[in-house]
Amino acid sequence: MNDLVERFEVAFNQIHQHLKEFNGYPKNDNFVELLQRSKLKHSVIRVHFDLLKQYAKLRNALVHERIRDDYYIATPHLEVVESLEHIKQTLDQPPEALEFATHPVIFFKDTSLLTEIMTAFDQQGVSQFPIYSKDNEFLGLLTNDGIVRWIARSVDNNVVNLAGVTAKDVLQDGLNPSIEFLSSHGTVYELEERFERSLEEERKLKAVILTESGKANDAPLGIVTTWDLIKVDRRNEDE
């Protein structure tokens, strides 16, 4: 029985350490307070929030209501210990962001005709394409919404002339959405933090593009939108 208590306390303390790290090691390191803050940032905490709050109560009973050194007023069941250890393991070894990204990434050059890109929107069923220069410099993300707004601005006598219009022409219209880059080896926590920070800054982050080095001008290996983050929640729920 004491072995289960020890395993429980070890896993709990390691999770507590992760929570401190997630929140920049604040002065107030109360477990439940850190849990509350962390659930806004990380899906694994959000999914297991209620469970971890209950485990915190059990931990308090183990630590503060011990009758004597070798006798506890409450002890965890094996399934509780294993559940806590599983959460700890997920925090120790978070999945890579690339697991939740759309890949491979279809992209176009700035000289690509708009009609070609519009055809790809229809055929591929996606809503955005990265645009690069001939020197592989990232220029922006061309979205279907951006194209619609460009067309609305370009109507002349109820006619829009698309002849010769390129991706560069649309991007130059100032409709570039906010994009960030992350290494393809980055964790899902780093990915979630990018979107969370954009919310805090009241800046709508359209997507995070994953490259080998995390630099903008490397080849795109994956692209993640807010819709893709739903996959993270679902995976954690399934586990």
What global shape is seen?
elongated
- Percent strand equals 5-15%
Strand order of the largest sheet: 1-2-3
The N- to C-terminal Cα distance equals 26 Å
CATH architecture of the largest domain: Roll
Domain CBS: 101-157, 175-239
Protein name: CBS domain protein
Keywords: CBS domain
InterPro entries: CBS_dom, CBS_dom_sf
Structure description:
With 239 residues, the protein is an alpha/beta fold. The chain has two domains: 2-90, no CATH class; 99-238, CBS-domain (Roll), CATH 3.10.580. It is 48% helix and 13% strand. It has ten helices and six strands. It has helices spanning 2-22, 31-38, 43-47, 49-64, 78-92, 114-124, 144-154, 167-171, 188-200, 229-238; strands spanning 108-109, 128-132, 138-143, 178-183, 205-211, 220-224. The strands form two sheets. A three-stranded mixed sheet has the order 1-2-3. A three-stranded mixed sheet has the order 4-5-6, covered by helices on one side. α1 (2-22) crosses α2 (31-38). The radius of gyration is 24 Å and the shape is elongated. The two termini are 26 Å apart. The mean pLDDT is 88.
Keywords:
6 strands; 2 domains; 239 residues; alpha/beta
